[in-house]
Write a structure and sequence with these properties.
Structural class: alpha/beta
Shape: elongated
Strand content: 5-15%
CATH superfamily of the domain at 53-153 and 189-331: P-loop containing nucleotide triphosphate hydrolases
CATH architecture of the domain at 53-153 and 189-331: 3-Layer(aba) Sandwich
Helix content: 55-70%
């Protein structure tokens, strides 16, 4: 099965998952079991599934056949090349291929001059007017190919302007950017391209990132800070005739291999093996040449040979278009696609499965707890009413007094609940005092002041280090507040369960560890790519400060914004079961008291009331049965493939 088929199967599974959640949401509404918090959680879960993306990054120096590999893996069924692929440099700027139904098919191009503003590409995505738009005529392959050539456009500028825009110039023939005979430098016309194209795989959420080499990667910190680390798969492409060059090794060491060689979805592709197909050599000799190159590349990159995939993207594309099975097998493209499918799709599916299981599990426990609470209260009423059969008025009065005392006792216990709400509010305020975006903004301002006033390199690096230390400290203090809230809620859950029989279980846990790890990652990147002695000595202080705040500090703030959002959802989720159960218990006590009062006042017969409650009990049992049926259906979808096969 090809990668396209695997991804289509994954998309179908995701659609079934969304449909099941939608059915569950409708069932809750039909049975009047939903509330604002439950609706919000399920809507957010559905939104995440709708916006689910599978990001695959292709990284290589120029002339490694990267665009051809993308064409061969994803777009061969188009009957022609989608991305330009010819001798020399084709993709001149980082290019994202995706599909957003809210926008027409087109190419969005960000001018290279925007680099001088030192703002990241993600910031510019908020300002559509800054982008040059080229319409895509998806009905004409020729018109599309012509439009896509814009990605390869270049400009000739002075060496001074090239330097200001972040292009490193060299004198040797191997240099990517050098001064020509006319005294000018040829540079990319565009800084970033987004191709919005309604291809079936892109419609399903596939996003392809095509990067144009070391010079672009080094000049765009956003690539190494967020786009590449967040990619679900990174394919690093080498050429079979050259092996690992110095610039290839620099990309691998600085941007992919560091801590990532053993990560799932990181693969090395040795392309253009058809260059080794020598008609004067035997198949065994050719195989020996390919194996020798694979072993050499694996040794240089310090990874197992099984992670290096020799292919011919060009022959694979031709074979797919012309339906030549023998040539396709010889290109070895199916082996790469199979490995990519086995690595990429299951890893992504595991993430979606775990997130859905966690969210759905929380909602299921809440709804089941609510139904069980209603059933327990109703059965208590039935027990009391059955005990009144054949009893005199005095016994009815006694029973009425007993329920009233129980109600009074519960309402006295509510004072503890209100006290907990007050403490909860205080702890929540303290949590957001540490975790709040305002604190990060204040830290950012004070750090900028310290860096602006710095006279020495060490003062700059100390200010950066302090920024990360303070950010980490805020998260650690927040973790302390989270632990305190969790301990308090666990104690009150247990107390109300024991004293009043509430079905509360255990409060949902929460951790800020992922955000602490993100701060560590950003600091490590800053230490190795920005605050190095070479950078500090060769770049103006103003540029280093600008890059730190426009690239690194922005991501720190974003991490805090996401932590705030997650903490807010958790705080609602941890208090909601308590609020629901307390409200439900109050209603049940009130109903029990009213029921006995009506019998005492002879406004309702005992047998009629018992029959009415029997009917309500049957309805609750049917709701519990319906809930479990929907839950079984959901859990079958969430089963890992191995477990599903065993169950079958």
């Amino acid at each position: 099965m090809s990668l396209g088929h695997h991804f289509a199967a994954y998309s179908e599974w995701r659609s079934h998952l969304s449909a099941s959640i939608g059915d569950f949401q409708d069932w809750l509404a039909d049975n009047e079991l939903s509330d604002a918090q439950t609706d919000l959680r399920l809507e957010q879960l559905l939104e995440r599934l709708r916006e689910d993306r599978l990001n695959v990054a292709f990284v290589a120096e120029f002339s490694r056949g990267k665009s051809e590999l993308i064409n061969a893996i994803f777009f061969a069924d188009h009957g022609n090349r989608m991305l330009p692929s010819s001798a020399g440099r084709t993709t001149m700027c980082p290019t994202e291929l995706l599909y957003d139904s809210a926008r027409p098919p087109r190419i969005e191009l960000l001018p290279i001059q925007t680099r001088s503003a030192n703002s990241g590409v993600s910031e510019y995505k908020k300002f559509p007017d800054e982008w040059h738009l080229v319409p895509l005529d998806v009905t004409s392959p020729e018109a599309m190919q012509e439009a896509l050539r814009h990605v390869s456009e270049t400009l000739r500028v002075s060496p001074e302007e090239a330097g200001k825009l972040g292009f490193q110039l060299g004198d040797d023939a191997a240099a990517a950017y050098r001064v020509g005979d006319d005294g000018l430098v040829e540079i990319p016309r565009w800084r970033h391209a987004v191709i919005n194209y309604p291809h079936p795989l892109l419609k399903e959420g596939l996003v392809i990132l095509d990067t144009p080499g070391l010079n672009a990667i080094g000049a765009e910190p956003e690539l190494t800070l967020s786009l590449l680390p967040n990619a679900h798969a990174v394919l690093f492409i080498l050429a079979a005739d050259t092996g690992v060059t110095q610039s290839d090794l620099a990309i691998w060491t600085d941007h992919i291999g560091e801590g990532g060689a053993a990560r799932r979805g990181r693969m090395v592709v040795l392309n253009k093996i058809d260059g080794l197909w020598d008609e004067l050599k035997s198949p065994e000799e050719i195989e020996g040449e390919i194996k020798k190159q694979v072993d050499s590349c694996a040794a240089i990159l310090n990874l197992p040979a099984r992670q290096v995939f020799p292919v011919s993207a060009q022959k694979g594309l031709v074979a797919k278009i012309n339906d030549e099975a023998e040539l396709l097998a010889r290109s070895r493209l199916p082996l790469l696609e199979a490995a990519l499918s086995e690595e990429l799709i299951p890893a992504k599916q595991d993430i979606v499965r775990d997130n859905t299981e966690s969210e759905f599990g929380e909602v299921h426990r809440r709804v089941r707890g609510l139904l069980e609470s209603r059933l327990a209260g109703l059965r208590e009423q039935l027990t009391e009413l059955n005990e009144l059969r054949g009893k005199n008025k005095g016994v009815v009065e006694y029973m009425m007094g007993k329920v009233r005392a129980e109600k009074d006792e519960f309402e006295a216990g509510l004072q503890r609940y209100y006290a907990v709400r007050s403490v909860f509010s205080t702890l929540t305020n303290r949590l957001f005092g540490h975790l709040g975006v305002d604190a990060v903004k204040q830290l950012t301002r004070s750090t900028r002041e310290a860096m602006d006033g710095a006279s020495f390199s060490k003062t700059l690096t100390d200010a950066m280090a302090n920024f990360f230390a303070e950010s980490r400290g805020a998260l650690q203090k927040s973790s302390g507040e989270v632990d305190e809230i969790l301990a308090m809620m666990d104690a009150i859950y247990r107390r109300f369960s024991v004293e009043h029989g509430l079905k509360l279980g255990s409060p949902a846990s929460f951790s800020l560890l992922r955000y602490l790890k993100e701060i560590d990652r950003l600091e490590q990147w800053c230490d190795t790519h920005l605050a190095t002695m070479v950078n500090l000595l060769t770049h103006e202080k103003r540029n280093i400060i600008q890059k730190f705040f426009d690239e690194v500090a922005v991501l720190v703030r974003r991490a805090f914004e996401h932590a705030n959002r997650d903490a807010e959802l958790w705080l609602k989720a941890i208090m909601a079961p308590m609020e629901t159960q307390v409200r439900e218990h109050q209603i049940q006590l009130k109903r029990r008291l009213e029921s006995i009062k009506r019998i005492h006042q002879a406004t309702d017969t005992l047998e009629d009331r018992i029959a009415e409650l029997d009917s309500v009990e049957q309805g609750l049992l049917e709701q519990l049965q319906g809930l479990e049926g929907l839950t079984v259906q959901m859990r079958q979808l969430l089963q890992p493939p191995e477990a599903a096969r065993r169950a079958a």
